[in-house]
Amino acid sequence: MYKSKRILAVIPARSGSKGLPGKNIRPFAGIPLIAWTIRQALASKYLDKVVVSTDDLKISKIARKYGAETPFLRPKKLAISSAKTVEVLIHALDFFERKGRKFDLIMLLQPTSPLRKTEDIDEAIKLFFRKNARAIVSVCPVDHHPLWCNILDKNGGMKNFAKQEAVNRNRQELPEYYRVNGAIYFTFASLLRKEKNFITERAYAYKMPRERSVDIDTEFDFDFAQFLNSGENTQKCPRT
User: Fold this and answer.
1) Helix, coil or strand: residue 146
2) Pick from 132, 155, 176: which residue ends a domain?
3) Domain annotation covers residue 151
4) Which H or E run contains 38?
5) pLDDT in the model for residue 125
6) CA 170 to chain centre
7) 117: DSSP letter
C-alpha cells in the first residue's frame, strides 16, 4: 500500500510461447525465469498482492514455490497468442472484486524482464504519485537511433534512407529517443477498465538503463540477458 492506495501486481505467464517455448519457467541464473519477477515484486515496499495469471498447472506450482499467489487458472480464451494483456489484467481484477477485494491500482510485471530491480518497481510507484499521473510506463534509451532507420525499396535502394535532420550530424547532436522496455506498467484499476491502455493522457515515463531493459522473446534475448547478468555484471535476485 502507498498513500492509502491498495496495489495489485499481476505477472502474466501463459504456457504457449511460440518464440521461445517454455521461457517463463526456463532456468535463468539458477532459478526459473518467472521467479526473478516474483521475488522482485515480493520485495517491494508497496505492492499489496503479487499474483501470477497462468493457464498452466506447472507454472502455477512453480509460482507458488517462489511465493506468488495463483488463486485461479486463466481461461483458455485469455491464454491464446491473440489474447490482450489488458484483458488478462481485468480478469484478475474481476476475480478479486467477486471475492470482495478491490484494488485501487494495478501493476503489470512481465516475467520476461528479469533484470529490472525492486527499486525500479518502488520508484515507479513513487513517481506516479509525485507526478499526479494517470499511468507510468517504463522506458529506456533506444539502441539504434530511429532517424537512421527506414524501409528499403524493392531493389534494396537507399535513396532518402536517412532522415534529413540526421544527415551530416553526429549521434551526440541528435535528440535522445526512448522505447517502451516492457518491464513496468502501472495505472488506476478503474482507468485500465475504461481506457484499456496504459499510454494515455498524463502517462509518464519511468526511465531505466538499457542493461536492465532486456525483454526476453527469443533465444538471442535470453542469452544476452544471461550475459548481462554474468561475471562482473551479476545482479542478485532478491530472496523472500
Assistant:
1) helix
2) 176
3) yes
4) helix 33-42
5) 98
6) 32
7) -
Domain identity same for 39 and 88: yes
Question: In whole angstroms, what is the distance from residue 10 CA to residue 117 CA?
Answer: 16
Q: Are residues 101 and 158 in the same domain?
A: no
- The pLDDT, as a whole number, for residue 95 is 97
Q: Are 182 and 79 in contact (CB under 8 A)?
A: no
The helix/strand/coil state of 141 is: strand
Cell numbers representing residue 194 in the block: 475504461
pLDDT (0 to 100) of residue 86: 96
Give pLDDT, residue 168. Answer: 61
Mean pLDDT by 10 residues, the chain (240 residues): 95 85 93 98 98 96 97 93 94 96 97 97 98 98 86 87 75 86 98 95 96 95 93 61
Indicate whether 41 and 157 sit together in one domain: no
Closest CA to 113 of 197, 38, 206, 63: 38
pTM: 0.90
Which three three-digit cell numbers place residue 100? 470482495
34 and 58: one domain? yes
- Phi, psi angles (nearest 5°) of residue 147: -70, -15
Please calculate the CA angle 236-239-240 and round it to the nearest 5 degrees. Answer: 160
Residue 43 near residue 35 (C-beta atoms within 8 A): no
Per the structure, the complete domain to which residue 28 belongs is given by 7-142+177-233
Q: What are phi and psi of 181, to 5 degrees?
A: -100, -5
- Using CA of residue 117, residue 205, residue 200, residue 179, what is the dihedral sign? negative
**8-state DSSP, 14:** -
pLDDT score at 150: 87
Residue 198 forms part of a structural domain: yes
